[in-house]
Amino acid sequence: MQVDTAQTLDRGLKLLSLVTDTPGGVTVTEAASRLGVGRAVIYRLAATLTEHSLVRRDAEGRLRIGVGLLHLARRAQPLLADAALPPLRRLADRVGATAHLTVADGADAVAVAVVEPSATMFHVAYRVGSRHPVEKGAAGRALSLVDGWTVSQGELQPGAFGLAAPVLGIPGLTASVGVISLSPLDEDSVGPLVQQTALAISRALA
Q1: What is the CATH number of the domain that holds 134?
Q2: The dihedral of CA 201, 187, 147, 166: what is its sign?
């Protein structure tokens, strides 16, 4: 019985991971093929996940993430902030610019941790919970990177310069670390610092 229960849990988690990693959703047939199980198994797993609002069926019958998963993600945000704040503090003070951790939330990028520099008189004000489309701004575009960093100029705030790099190596987490300044920053010196901060946060969460 314990073996059967563990196998069911394992399959359910794999299905949830598959649905989460497939933006357009998956059909029962596609899920069965990808996971190497029968359609009946997928139907049973999907029914249980649907009861807990972790998965939903759309009008075409495709399995998509449910609102319950979003609630779980929001509850995890304090954990992200706790891990991110010390490295972000070091980055903000070293660069003299506002530093932040941003995560993907559907088609939006959302700031979950923000640290303003302690020594500069003027800096860009940025709030936890700030939200914008993932295709806008350095922090949003960095969410899709697998290396390096990206920059933006005046896309989210007039005149503001942004530089961001992805947080890599944490399964299920799509995040970026960035800095925002009132004037352009030296990419060659700031870019590696942002990458180092992203790596420090990744290690803290591992």
Answers
A1: 3.30.450.40
A2: positive
73-83 confidence digits (pLDDT tens): 767 777 888 88
Concatenating the DSSP letter of every residue in 165-202 gives EEE-S-TT--EEEEEEESS---HHHHHHHHHHHHHHHH
What is the model's pTM? 0.70
184-188 contacts, C-beta under 8 A, 24 or more apart: 184/153, 185/95, 185/97, 185/161, 187/149, 187/151, 187/163
Residue ranges of the alpha helices (H) in the chain? 2-20, 28-35, 39-51, 67-95, 137-142, 187-205
pLDDT at 156 over 90: no
Q: What is the largest CA-CA distance in the chain?
A: 64
> Domain range holding 59?
2-65
Structure tokens at 113: 């941790």
Which tokens sit at 179? 């800095």
What's 49's domain CATH number? 1.10.10.10
The C-alpha atoms of residue 64 and residue 173 are separated, in whole angstroms, by 17
In order of 36, 92, 109, 117, the CA distances from 124 in angstroms are: 50, 11, 18, 10
Give the residue among 73, 150, 142 at the shortest CA–CA distance from 112: 73
Q: Interhelix angle for 39-51 vs 28-35, to 10°?
A: 110
